Amino acid sequence: MPVSLSAFDLAYDELRARWPESTEERDVATPYGRTRVHVHGPADGSPLVLLPGGSATGLVWFANAPALGGRYRIHAVDLLGDAGRTERRGTPLKNADDLTAWLDALLDGLGLARTHLCGHSYGAWTAVRYALHAPQRVDRLALVDPTQVFAGFRPGYLLRALPTLIRPSRDRTRAFLAWETADTHPDETWQRLYALAATVPGRKLVVGPRPRAAGLRMPVLVLLAGRGRPHDAAKVADRARRTLPQGEVVLLPGATHHSLPLTEPKELNDRLMDFLG
């Protein structure tokens, strides 16, 4: 009998269809399970690994893929422990050190001795931890509205998010997303996928302390959502500049945290490509 797809799977496949036709799907074996990676761009392009925020899946970069994939070989990853097509099997995912070990195995499986690395939100936190763990493998590091790196969450943001964490549902998540993204109008298919991700059983995002970002030695770009709710962007920008005196910090004035990276992507794409070179 044919397998009945869940609402999440249907939304996932619908958003996957928005990627360029030449996009390849790779399932890379790691000790923690097989990792789904969406690969697009010239085979000889400089590699760029993209890590999404929680619940967003690697597909969230669909609006960025045409521009970035014109120059780089992009690898957009479904995070370990999150909703998506990455499996969690084998070695248990227990802590943040497991995330870095998983990324080591993933880059090995992709054949990437070195790569540019870009992460959004939780993916940025993961990217910083990895860049500190394996600086020899990261050429340039881009952080898109990173959380738990330069500052903690605003209490008001956590209060709004709490119901979606304690009793996750599609409606609660949609309401939270509408509050945070205000009038930026993120893509409807992606919003549906994000809301359904909250209801996927077995999700387990590991967390940990803020990484010591001052220890980063590669070039770093920090792109901050000027209207984001999780933290005060101006204060985070100031702290990022003091932490990374050689880094580049840019405010995207019209963006909110969850409207990135997919809404009005041109400025983000241009900033990122200028930085990566």
> Approximately how much beta-strand content do the residues carry?
15-25%
Q: Which value, in Å, is the CA radius of gyration?
A: 17 Å
Helix content: 25-40%
Category from helices, strands and their pairing: alpha/beta
Give the number of DSSP strands: 8
Give short descriptive properties of this protein.
single chain, 277 residues, alpha/beta, 8-stranded mixed β-sheet, globular
Structure commentary:
The chain has 277 residues and is an alpha/beta fold. It is 35% helix and 18% strand. The protein has nine helices and eight strands. The protein has an eight-stranded mixed beta sheet with strand order 1-2-4-3-5-6-7-8, sandwiched between helices. A hairpin with a 2-residue loop joins β1 (24-30) and β2. α3 (96-110) packs across α4 (122-133) and α6 (170-181) crosses α7 (188-197). The longest helix is centred in the middle third of the chain and has 15 residues, at 96-110. It is globular and about 45 Å long. The N and C termini lie far apart (50 Å). The mean pLDDT is 96.
